[in-house]
Amino acid sequence: REIAPGAVHVPGWLTLDEQRRLVGECREWARGPVPIRHTVLPRGGVMSVRTVCLGWHWQPYRYTRVAHDVNGRQVAELPGWLADLGRRALADAYGRSMAYEPDTALINFYDGQARMGMHQDKDERSDAPVVSLSIGDTCLFRFGNTETRGRPYTDVQLASGDLFVFGGPSRFAYHGVPKVYPGTGDPATGLASGRLNLTLRVTGLS
Ligand code: MD3
Ligand code: FE
Asked: For 28, 47, 63, 64, which has the most beta carbons within 10 A of its beta carbon?
């Protein structure tokens, strides 16, 4: 389950009930105040995933409270219960409880064609771990290294309910999602198709 130092995969961590609740909440969060959108990159590219943010709004490549790139509204707050879930996730993955105060969640929705290229997450001013929860269709997740976008990397399938924590030396590793496998999710989660990924992060901003 430890894919690399600080990178821990816990398959099937979320119960079906927890997944159903998260799918329902994601549906609400996707409606606004800042609706879910395809992020437009500074050079004009459009990301194939759709993203909605809580706490802080991510726009490449910084966090703001106000969504200048969407509708100028302030993003919804990060609910306390979601930060609690993040603490429980971290404790289960690492086998010990730690202080952890995530202040933002990024929720990505992948349809069957969506991908995420290899990148590092370095817009946060903190090296606190990232907690990732997957719901819906299984994907191919590529976990690389901190030096280059390319090899060596480890390919892992992330299925519905899986938890992944990225801390320590893995926090700034390259990673991406080269493929989603349509039709592999359980409709009982409430998600008929596609994949949801929730990440909890500490921005280090105030
Ligand atoms: C490893 N999301 O939102 S989650 C992202 O499935 C992102 O939507 C992917 O990469 C997704 O930035 C991958 C797993 C993940 C998230 C954050 C990480 C892996 C990470 C940060 C550092 C290292
Ligand atoms: Fe990332």
From this structure: 63
